[in-house]
Design goal:
Keywords: DNA-binding, Transcription, Transcription regulation. This is Helix-turn-helix domain-containing protein. The structure is a single chain. By secondary structure, this protein is of the alpha+beta class. It has 2 domains: 165 residues, Jelly Rolls, CATH 2.60.120; 111 residues, Arc Repressor Mutant, subunit A (Orthogonal Bundle). Helix content is 43%, strand content 18%. The protein is built from 10 helices and 7 strands. Strands 1, 2, 3, 4, 5, 6 and 7 form a 7-stranded antiparallel β-sheet that branches. It starts with a helix and ends in a 9-residue tail after the last helix.
Length: 284
């Protein structure tokens, strides 16, 4: 049985992985990594919390997970089978940034992340997942292109289907929105390389990602936590800055860029304001 670290390594190297759920239950946990989208075909009973909605699923469903939208999955039945496909946006859309996956009706917030699947549709989709597994293990020179075609086939077939309507809106909107914001904030970290800087840096960035007005997000977060959205963001960036300063040899300019500061001087002023000392004194 492959270890979870093996799956993570493969995803980092190729930006893609597909497997049968019943072969390695632990492998499904990697979907929470912030850069990977997920398509999951499952048969069983489950409860899926997706942003501010909760879906109750029984039978066969097709689920689309966006790494920028927090979600969690509760398995309720004793047997749960199916397939999972994980991929990065760079894998599916190499060199083409004109249309983001986040705008797809299947992946965007408020879209259609869960589809009810008939027996006939399940057999068809099972075949596609099985072909992807076979190609993933093959030595075919152009297997990445072929796998991309299979993923696109699933996406196009899914757009024809009616979304599931078996969901409940969370009763406490402020608490749920705050929970979604806090999880989304945490998903932006750790920063693994100066070449991949922080993308969501301001309350406006998070509000746009969550499809709400900035003022509405801030009111909800402050109501629930007692602190404004900006304070949570600043605290988390400060924590990450300390970690990078103590555990890497990146220079100050690299750290500043990685954490979303236009100039090192802005980063220096930010850290001094947050901690009372200059970044250089926080080095281990």
């Amino acid at each position: 049985m492959r270890s979870l670290s093996t799956y993570n390594n493969e995803l980092k190297l190729k930006g893609f992985n597909v497997f049968q759920i019943e072969e390695d239950g632990n492998a499904t946990r990697v979907y929470s990594r912030k850069e990977f989208y997920k398509i999951c075909l499952t048969t069983g009973k489950s409860k899926i919390h997706y942003a501010d909605r909760t879906f109750e699923a029984e039978g066969t469903i097709l689920f689309f997970g966006n790494p920028h939208i927090p979600y969690s999955w509760e398995t309720l039945s004793s047997t749960y089978v199916g397939y999972t496909c994980l991929f990065s946006e760079d894998f599916l859309l190499p060199g083409n940034r004109s249309e983001s996956l986040q705008q797809s009706p299947l992946f965007k917030l408020g879209g259609t992340p869960i589809l009810d699947i008939s027996t006939e549709q399940r057999d068809f989709l099972n075949g596609i997942f099985q072909r992807m597994i076979s190609e993933q293990q093959s030595d075919y020179e152009f297997k990445d292109d072929l796998i991309r075609n299979y993923i696109n086939l699933i996406l196009h077939e899914s757009l024809k289907l009616k979304p599931s309507e078996k969901y409940n809106q969370n009763k406490n909107a402020a608490e749920r929105l705050t929970s979604v914001f806090m999880e989304l904030l945490e998903r932006q970290f750790p920063i693994e390389s100066p070449e991949r800087p922080l993308q969501l840096k301001s309350p406006k960035d998070y509000a746009q990602q969550l499809s709400v007005h900035t003022n509405y997000l801030n009111r909800a977060v402050k109501q629930v936590t007692g602190k404004p959205t900006s304070a949570h963001i600043s605290d988390r960036i400060t924590h990450e800055a300390k970690s990078i300063l103590q555990h890497t040899n990146w220079n100050i300019a690299e750290i500043a860029y990685a954490l979303g500061f236009e100039y090192p001087t802005y980063f220096n002023h930010f850290i001094k304001k947050q901690t009372g000392t200059a970044p250089s004194f926080l080095r281990a």
